[in-house]
Amino acid sequence: MSAALELALRPEDEAGLGAEWARLSEKVLGYVTRPAKRVRPALLIAGYRASRGEEPVPDAVYRFAAGLEILHAFMLVHDDIADRAETRRGGASLHRLLATSNSADGQRLGQDLALVSGDHLFARAVELMLSSGAPNATEATLQMLAICRHTAAGQALDLALAQAPLASVTLFETMRVAQLKTARYGFVAPLLSGALLAGAPSNTRDALSRAGRHAGIAFQLRDDVLGLFGDDQVAGKSGAADFIEGKRTFPIIAAWTRADAAGRAELEALMDGPKDEAAIARMREALERHGGRLATERVIARCTRAALKALATVPHGPGRATLEQFLSKLANRSA
Q1: Which class in CATH covers the domain with range 142-335?
Q2: What is the enclosing helix (H) or strand (E) of 201?
């Protein structure tokens, strides 16, 4: 996949755009090709194989999958700017990488260049998917873009909730964010794209969509757990990033819902106070004590079972079995 991404991000028509653009493009290329899970391309290929059995996957489908990974990179770039994230995939987030200094002006330039780079990645991703030569590429691209619009709504809700008092945030809203930001975009869309490129019938597409919806929620809730209880070295980012950024994620709201008045006051004080190592330790202990982590693990298990049940109706056994293993692994990952 890295070789395909490198080829895709060095289009011939950009060779004469100047030295400044060439330097920026090389930095962006290094960012995009960092070691990563490549979940979305893998799900697209899995959706294709689950729809077509053991037939070889055409190169055109891999080109479409590369476009999908570039689209994801665009999402990460803009998401990290909004979240003020310092790291991504074991290195600096793109806006930090492009900052020319630690001054306000240097940081602002890094953000501006990252925004421009993200816009470029979006355009290149759509271009690559549409020109991939895969059957039904236009239909698959259009459904992906429609889901991207809904992802924007999920990101807007996520940002709004980060500023809201804990008492006003509901578990439904945290699940809504998981549905819009992760489940539909990160799982349903690539699985459905793979099925569309394979020419799968509607019943197979529906089954993959259901599986993706449940697996995506399990994936996001696992991400929520790792954003509070993660290992910095394993995850490649802060193991308490969500707490530090003030995100109202499912484990936190589940703990607040179950806590008594004193427990709620404790959680509110931790969310509103300084986020040092001592506060991180206290928050982790409070989430365990008030059942936030346990409640999240139970929903992850329930959603994983629902995803596997939906996959049971997919006709092609070998491709389905591979997808079952992949989804189970994602839901129980440590990074």
Answers
A1: mainly alpha
A2: none
Categorise residue 236: left if φ over 0, alpha if ψ from -120 to 50, beta otherwise. Answer: left
pLDDT of residue 289: 96
Residues 177, 45, 72, 124: is their CA dihedral positive or negative?
A: negative
Tokens of 315: 């006709």
Task: Quote the tokens at residue 152.
Answer: 């924007």
Write the DSSP string, 40-97.
HHHHHHHHHHHHHTTSPPPHHHHHHHHHHHHHHHHHHHHHHHHHT--EETTEE-HHHH
Residue ranges matching CATH 1.10.600.10 in the chain: 142-335
Question: What confidence category does residue 203 fall into, taking pLDDT thresholds of 50, 70 and 90?
Answer: very high
Which residues share a beta bridge with 91?
A: 88
Q: What are phi and psi of 88, to 5 degrees?
A: -160, 130
Which of 184-193, 227-236, 242-251, 279-288 has the lowest average pLDDT? 227-236
The identity of residue 248, as a single letter, is R
∠ CA 125-127-132, nearest 5°, is 95
- Average pLDDT in the 253-267 region? 96
* Banded pLDDT at 7 (limits 50, 70, 90): confident
DSSP-derived 3-state class of residue 302 = helix
Per-residue tokens: 61: 């489908």
What's the pLDDT score for residue 324? 85
CB 48 within 8 A of CB 318: no
Global confidence as pTM: 0.89
Count each helix (H run) and each strand (E run) in the chain, helices first.
Answer: 17, 2
Q: What is the pLDDT of residue 236?
A: 53
Q: Compute the distance between CA of residue 157 and CA of residue 147 in angstroms, rounded to an integer.
A: 15
| Extended beta strands in the chain, E state | 87-88, 91-92
